[in-house]
Each structure stands twice: as C-alpha cells, then as structure tokens.
Amino acid sequence: MNLLVRELSxxxxxxxxxxxxSFSFETDGLLGIIGPNGAGKxxxxxxxxxxxxxxxxxILLGExxxxxxxxxxxxxxxxxxxxxxxxxxxxLTVRENLMAAAPHQPGERLIPLFLAPARVRAAExxxxxRADEVIAFLRLEAVADLPAGRLSGGQKKLLELGRALLTEPxxxxxxxPFAGVNAVLVGEVIERIAALHARGIGFxxxxxxxxxxxxxxxxxxxxxxxxxIAEGEPRAVxxxxxxxxxxxxxxxx
Length: 253
Ligand SMILES: Nc1ncnc2c1ncn2[C@@H]1O[C@H](COP(=O)(O)OP(=O)(O)O)[C@@H](O)[C@H]1O
Ligand SMILES: [Mg+2]
What we know:
The chain is 39% helix and 24% strand. By secondary structure, the chain is an alpha/beta fold. The two termini are 33 Å apart.
C-alpha cells in the first residue's frame, strides 16, 4: 500500500511550519526523516496521524483520503505514531500501559460488562496475552510490573513502540526513538525495528542520530523550514549542498 502526501501546508500564527510537503512512501518500507530543530518534522507526524489538521494538502493511504479521520480511525487503518516525549501513564505498570493501548476492549462499555462478563473476561485475557507477547518481544519482562514512571528514558521509548504495536499497525511513525537512549539500548531498538520490518511493518523515523538511522533506513527525507529539501539514499543526501547548508550552525551532523 502507498502513503501519498501531497502539498501539505500548516501555519501557526502566520508562521509556515509545513510548506507544501509532498512525498510518496510504500507503507512496508523504511524512511528516515531528518532536518534541523524546528524544521516541522514532528508537526508532519501530527498531521499524518491526525492529531492536528493541515491547512491545505491531502493524505492518501492506498485509495483512501484519510485527511478527515481521527487518530483512532487512522490507527484502525494501521497508521500510528509515537511521541518525541513519551506519553506513558506514570502510575500504571508497563503491562497495564500496553493493555490500555489495545483497541476495542469490550470491558470499556457498560452494557457488555453487565450482559456478558465471561466474554469481557475472555477479551481481557486476550489483550493481556498480546501485551505479554509485546513485552517479551521488546525484552521488557524485568520491568513489566513496575510503574512506567520508573523506567529509564530508553525503556520508555521501547514502551512507546510497544503501545504502537498493540494496535497491530501497518505503518508506525517513530519520533526520535533513539533520543536519550543509551548506546546499548539503541542497538536493541534498531534490531527490534528491523525485526518488525521483516514481518512487513513499515516505519517513518524522525531521528537526529544519523549514524544509527543510516544503519536502518535505505532512504532519507530532509526537511528544513517546513519544506522537503532533499530525498534519496543516505550518503547522497548527506553530501547534498542544500542539506549541508541547512545544517550549518547546528551541532548535528
Ligand atoms: N502547536 C504549535 N503552536 C505553535 N507553533 C508550533 C506548534 N507546534 C510546533 N510549532 C512550531 O513549529 C515549528 C516546527 O516544530 P516541530 O514540528 O516540532 O519541528 P521539529 O520536530 O522538526 O523540530 C517550530 O518553530 C515550533 O515552535
Ligand atoms: Mg520534533
């Protein structure tokens, strides 16, 4: 399936945060998104995932225009994002956080709760099993019963990825999955993403750690001041004049 982004624009108070952003992406692929701070990368993810709406432009997922769908409706179509700053429930355990991320829980509705408690219990058990699978896959067993607020920065990033996985996604938008993660854990996160990709899940990945990103993705899209200024194979893109100019005065790269 194809994600087709056409001429997306978004302004905040007259300031163009996204300026006619266009690109096309096969949803089972891997694409890195880079660019200086303030380039509009996180805003692009907010628009793609439905947390904010664009002023202009369109987003097609396969044949379907998804511009007007809510984040939940987009998640049902397989498109989910993670946040640059993890949004876990601090007081819930890791397992509870994962279970809360699962869609369609009949126990959330009052009537099924009264009418068919056995069915609700069975559904809860299924969600719990799914959460435990994700815990094992992300190797979070040792912290599964801890409040999420006690996790390290890297473990919180893994939990964010896990919450996305509970929705059984087709395409995951990862916002800085390596930021604040120690080097050993970055290696693990890369390996987990590669394993998910091998199972057919696609990723768009915003990341400042270009060395790590280049190990994972065959293509990069570069944004600067709301625009796409380059796209292509990492080495060519990083040698591009406009890309180098955009990064002048920045610490990375
Ligand atoms: N909700 C908002 N209201 C006003 N300005 C915003 C909002 N979100 C982001 N911005 C501004 O948009 C620009 C791009 O931000 P962002 O998308 O977070 O960039 P990046 O993720 O590339 O660092 C920044 O100048 C930021 O201050
Ligand atoms: Mg950002």
